[in-house]
Design brief:
Layout lengths: L32 E4 L2 E4 L57 H4 L14 E4 H7 L3 E2 L1 H6 L10 E4 L9 E4 L1 E2 L1 H9 L3 E4 L4
Parallel strand pairs: 3-5, 4-6, 5-7, 6-8
Antiparallel strand pairs: 1-2
Length: 191
């Protein structure tokens, strides 16, 4: 029986390479490093932009056999409603039971094209004490919220002085009271 020779490990000494001065990266603006709890925060600039983690996610490959890790059922589980194509659960879906939106009776009618007016009464106009009133003035004084929307004048209250009012609509009583006070009701045509 032969005795194994002892293995002697020798270190290879690499030849000393002469140091070459490496060029430093040129940064247009100085980037200040701030230390906060041993974390270095840098000023964001074009030189140090990075793509955030998770921005590029790999597409899930389906139907590529059992070796892909997504084989057999292609990550859909087994059988049932959620494993089929084309089946989507709409809002209010109750598992096939007649949903509440269909069980409840419907009453009345709601028109999408109906006109919604901002209401102003004559007593509010009398407090302004202005001879010519327009939607712009009403908005500035806080009587309406938006001068672009429709304005209707109602006949609640009395006018002491003559007032010229421009609005999109007037009630019959409002037109009478403005006329009695010596004023004028002008209808603005809405687009």
């Amino acid at each position: 029986m032969k005795t194994p020779k002892p293995v002697v490990k020798t270190k290879k000494i690499a030849a000393a390479e002469p140091e070459v001065a490496r060029p430093k990266p040129v940064v247009k603006k100085a980037v200040k490093a701030l230390k906060k709890e041993d974390k270095v925060l840098r000023v964001l600039s074009l030189e140090n932009l990075q793509v955030p983690f998770g921005a590029h996610k790999k597409r899930k490959l389906l139907g590529r056999g059992s070796g892909s890790g997504h084989g057999k059922t292609s990550t859909r589980g087994s059988k049932g409603q959620t494993s089929r194509t084309g089946r989507d659960f709409y809002t209010g879906f109750e598992g096939g039971q007649t949903p509440m939106i269909r069980r409840f009776p419907k009453r009345g009618f709601f028109s999408v094209n109906r006109k919604v007016y901002q209401i102003v009464n004559l007593e509010s106009l009398a407090k302004l004490k202005i001879a010519d009133i327009t939607p712009e003035i009403l908005e500035a004084k806080g009587l309406i919220k938006n001068k672009e929307k429709l304005v209707k004048i109602l006949g609640e209250g009395q006018l002491a002085s003559a007032v010229n009012v421009k609005a999109h609509a007037f009630s019959k009583k409002a037109i009478e009271l403005i006329g009695k006070a010596g004023g004028k009701a002008e209808i603005i045509k809405s687009a």
